[in-house]
Amino acid sequence: MKTIVFATGNKDKVVEIREILGDLDVDLKTMKEVGFTEEIEENGTTFRENAAIKAEAVAAYLRKSVPEYADAIVMADDSGLEIDAMGKMPGVMSHRWLGDRTYPQAMQDIIEELKDVPEEKRSARFVCSIAACVPGRETLTVQETIEGRVAHEMRGTEGFGYDPFFYVPEYGCTTAEMSREQKNAISHRGKGIRAMRDLLIAEGVLG
Fold first, then answer.
1. Is residue 102 domain-resident?
2. Above 90 in pLDDT, residue 36?
3. How much is the pTM?
4. Which residues span the domain enclosing 128?
């Protein structure tokens, strides 16, 4: 059985990832479960760069310090929200952009900032890059998105982060109003993890 170590400490992401990879015969661990507790400086300028930075940092630690996981596949994601009316901000700064605010406070600030922006110009997208470090190979990356709009109010209690105000017109609801299964089927992270899974299968890393 292959071991996949996912470089995240976000418990909500872990739940999603376990569900999305549930059909694979793999042992999924978080970086904390294998002893990695360091802060990773995400100083890349793109989602792909930051995902690779995180995966490579955890992979280097395992190869050097944790022999039992030296052959593990290390995966990481970097994701965020791009709002076209705000010049694609907050983008790669999506979490750091919060500052001292909670997500609901930040979303309310955005809703207020965009209050006079017409519907057709409220376009936005969630972006997710997935990186994978496989021993003896160069780092692999994939990137996926989900298109939507900034809603005029927060709705829904599922999901996390910016989900309550990310409206998907085709479904007539925010991603926080979707069931977990529905969201995983169409979300940026769901599509990204499945794309990386398929790439690893095509590369002969997973069977």
1. yes
2. yes
3. 0.93
4. 2-202
